[in-house]
Design a protein that fits this description.
The chain is mostly beta strands and about 110 residues long. The chain contains no helices and 10 strands.
């Protein structure tokens, strides 16, 4: 986890079961890291080792949304957010870096 990065999960950790088995998640990402190249951000939600892209929320800075898949026979899954980016390096090309959120548990409830 980047020491200067902050993740704020904006979606609930309990959602009603839906027929497509995809559940919306949203996160706000902020960083005080001055070397970060914001134009290079590639945000993901990671579920069981699989990375699913997040998309910027229109007209809202630093917020991203996406979907977490949960198989129909399960009532929960764990996920985390990961942001890959480039950071400026003194005297050389930018280097790859990433920031990872804590692990969250999404619970699916039947209506």
């Amino acid at each position: 986890t980047g020491c200067a990065s902050q993740f704020t999960r904006l979606s609930p950790l309990q959602q009603p079961r839906n027929p497509n088995n995809l559940y919306p998640v949203e996160v706000q990402f902020n960083s005080q890291e001055q070397a970060m190249r914001w134009d290079s951000l590639k945000p993901y939600v990671v579920v069981q080792g699989q990375m699913y892209p997040l998309h910027a929320v229109p007209m809202v800075p630093n917020r991203w949304e996406g979907f977490v898949p949960v198989i129909s026979s399960s009532d929960e899954t764990e996920f985390r957010f990961k942001f890959d980016y480039l950071q400026n390096a003194f005297g050389s090309e930018p280097t790859k870096a990433s920031a990872t959120s804590p692990l969250y548990k999404l619970k699916i409830v039947n209506q």
